[in-house]
Amino acid sequence: MILDDLRLKLEAAAHPGYYASIANQYPGVTDRLGVPMAAVRRAAADVVRAGEGLEFLEEALAPGAMTSHEMKLVAALVIATEWRLSFPEMLLAVERFMPNVTNWAVCDTLGEALGRFRKARAEGRGWLQEMADSGEPWRVRLADVILLAHYLAPEECDFAFALFGAPKALEAARTDYYASMGLAWAIQTFAARFGERTAEFFFALIESERVDAVTARRTLQKIRDSFRFTDAEKRRWTKEGNAHLAEKADRLPKSENRPIRLA
Whole-model pTM above 0.70? Predict the structure, then answer.
């Protein structure tokens, strides 16, 4: 079986030192083998190159078939790169795979690998809308990652902002750390490319109190930490963001009422 061969290949590629060195990046992930990502990518490429992608997915997407974190990463990459899947079939495979999306690494690896969205942006919009409207944290985060990776174009800003601001997506960000960080990352990415348009959208979210203060501050922090903004741009975003949040300060818990400061 293809899955058995993959299991043996990944176990052989596991490295105890690598396992230990990145342990703090995967809280709660207990099924890691400790395989470097380069080896995971090679394994996925080998499956597709051998013409075994469809057969592999039939095995891998059966409930409980994947027994390690790295097997899930391989499956995510095969879904994204198996050329024999049509775009709708790829989306169906993603749906079957979603029960395995339980940590940021699997979620983000899948979202960033789904490059076929770039040539099928219009076709993918309805599916992405459903993901954002689901309110499920990992579905919301996956939609955010796909948008920041494959919809980063001026003609897509309005669509992306509508999904970022979808009520159930914002509720997921309010209540779930990874959905919150996914939204902050996505807005920061669009801000780096489309500063004025993103600022107008983001500050309107704050003014309308649709986005929670914690997610708003995480967004400002990501802008501050990014190399894609000049110091002047960071100061401007920090100043304006803190000003907008300060207007709401009397309604916020003290834990949410701390301004972002530049070092």
Answer: yes
